[in-house]
DNA sequence: AACATTAATCGTAATATTGCAATAAATTAA
DNA sequence: TTAATTTATTGCAATATTACGATTAATGTT
């Protein structure tokens, strides 16, 4: 079906999976790393840096923006994209809590 | 095309995105949380707990196992699934390093 | 052996994702 | 205004993902 049954899961589980999903493509990982690394965060730079076609990069940027991880500002004919630090931190908190679940209890299960 | 061009990205970027991708479905998040929470990690329990059909759960377990995040042991007619703590820790290291990228430099970009 | 129980696999339908060419939209420059 | 530049959108093709019924495989039970 290709359709995730989100109604069967908690808000927290859906939130974690949505954040993970948007990080689940190497182009989006590369975009985020580039935005962290440099201040020259214009869309065209990302197209050159990453090597995918411009519409493809634009689409990935749209998803990252939809999840709130980046924000974009129009500057003349180009658009400057940057990390939304507030939302990134919020995402990091959610994901880190999930990753740091306690693993001591069921270590000897299998 | 639906086909990710992995050859354009670094091994690190592909690794991060693969880990994120497997966490990018609420059923797999729920499975992992349940395995962390309880020792009764038999496949049938997960089917009851989560509410998706048995083949669907089995498929999600397969993906988690393929990425190494869980391991399964046959116990009679049932199969006991558990967190692979070693690989979970390794994954956590990779993801945490990505999430903790320094955000001070480009805060004022946009 | 015959049956029951449990999980994996197969096959398939429906939806999602990825990628890009073509085009449109928005702004700037001449 | 016209042209140039840059990014977003549209439309589409190809592949991936999700879900589950039906079946198979594996083990245990009687």
From TrEMBL, chains A, B:
One Pfam family matching this protein: HTH_5
Ranges where the HTH arsR-type domain occurs: 8-102
Record GO terms (molecular function): DNA binding; DNA-binding transcription factor activity
Keyword terms of this UniProt record: DNA-binding, Transcription, Transcription regulation
InterPro entries: ArsR-like_HTH (IPR011991), HTH_ArsR_DNA-bd_dom (IPR001845), HTH_MetalResp_TranReg (IPR051081)
Full protein name: Metalloregulator ArsR/SmtB family transcription factor
